[in-house]
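Q: I have two molecules that I believe assemble together. Could you output structure tokens for the complex as a whole instead of separate predictions?
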Amino acid sequence: MQGEAVRVPRLFEKAPRERLAILRILTTGYALGFLIGYTPNLLSLTHLGPAQFAPVGPVSWMGHFIEGPLSQGALVAILALTASTGFCALFGVFYRFSGPIFAALLLFITSYRSSFGMIFHTENLLVFHLGVLALFPAADAYSYDAGRRERGDEPRLVYGAPLGLISLLTVTSYLLAGIAKLRYGGASWIDGEVLLSHIAWDNLRKLELGSIHSPLGALLCRFPSIFGPLAWLSLAFELFAPLALLGPRLARIWVASAILFHLGVALVMAIVFAYPLFGFAFLSFFSVERPARSILERFRARRLVRAV
Amino acid sequence: MSERAVQLYAVSIGALFFGAMVSPLFKDPPRDSFPLSDYPMFSSVREAAFLQIAVGVDGDGTEHRLPPFIIANREVMQAAQTLRRAVRQNRSYELCREIAGRVASSRAHAALERIRIESRLFDPARYFSEPDGSEPIERRRHAECRVRR
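A: Yes, here they are, computed for all two components at once.
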């Protein structure tokens, strides 16, 4: 990727409407993929029974209405409503309403998934990002809404501010994880003991529970000395995350480190944080409208050639 | 909306989301939740610990590991929590019967005759690095039930 294509948005930087629109399409598209992919698992939660129900987040705030797992029918209805509003948000149909409703419903669904004793940390950033997008005019381009109203082409603050906010939230989440490692692990984290013990425990648990584990992680556990440098690297990556907001070069380096970090986690622990691993979490750092414009131009050129 | 109004709006939204995100840092004692978390996972040393597991036993008495979807659903962590909570809440036999029911209708597990739920003590520091590290240090049986077909 060219250097000029990498942008580090600040809170008060102007941006073209297409950039925010592409972010809406890709982030909402990812969220819909997650929703559809996890639907069978979400439906199977009904079988877990009330004894295992331990509501968290918004699901616990709704404790007066939800005392146990939702019935299959209610869950199907909520999933269908979430998917419908998600498609409306994706295509920018009445986004002022569909965006916030979809963000709220997805927050509920992801919280519900974590309300059975195991809190998943894979969708935290996604729900924050969708929440910010929903509160800004992210459907002023490449959308049904855009077709109904004329918009100016000049970059505006209202399209740039959410990009800055999303980037800020992204680096903050990694900083929090770094602080937790120092707070709870301290010296044990720095010498690699914590990292080794978690990679070993996670893989042994998967093996004993008949699931897929990482043979690479299991192999690495035989060489404890490598975990010290690995621990330093991952801690530095998390604690220095805010540096990514300071300049394009630093942003590029940090985003590449983040993807490598999650690739490493996937390889040694068989845990896939798909949202950051495939780069969706870091789109706000880039001028994502440029590839979209170039694809559209090529498409238009082909149509023109055919017409001639 | 004027530029000034946009600035004010963005700062307000930013303060709300940023404040919410960092709020778990200031909770005492810290409490993990969703979507607000201080990300405590992987941050303190994992010592030797009991892991609750379910195994199937065939006619020869050989134990077979059961996949997560037989225990709870396809998510291994949810299967682990299902077992852990059942043991903690003294519902091991109840869960054993549920698992036996699912095993009975599974062709892939036709050879299994009994289900056991146990807590097994493992030391992660030894599990992969020592020849007998994968052997449980201690076993505690919570429930055993027959698979009725």
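A: One point stands out. Chain A touches chain B through 73 residues (CB under 8 Å).
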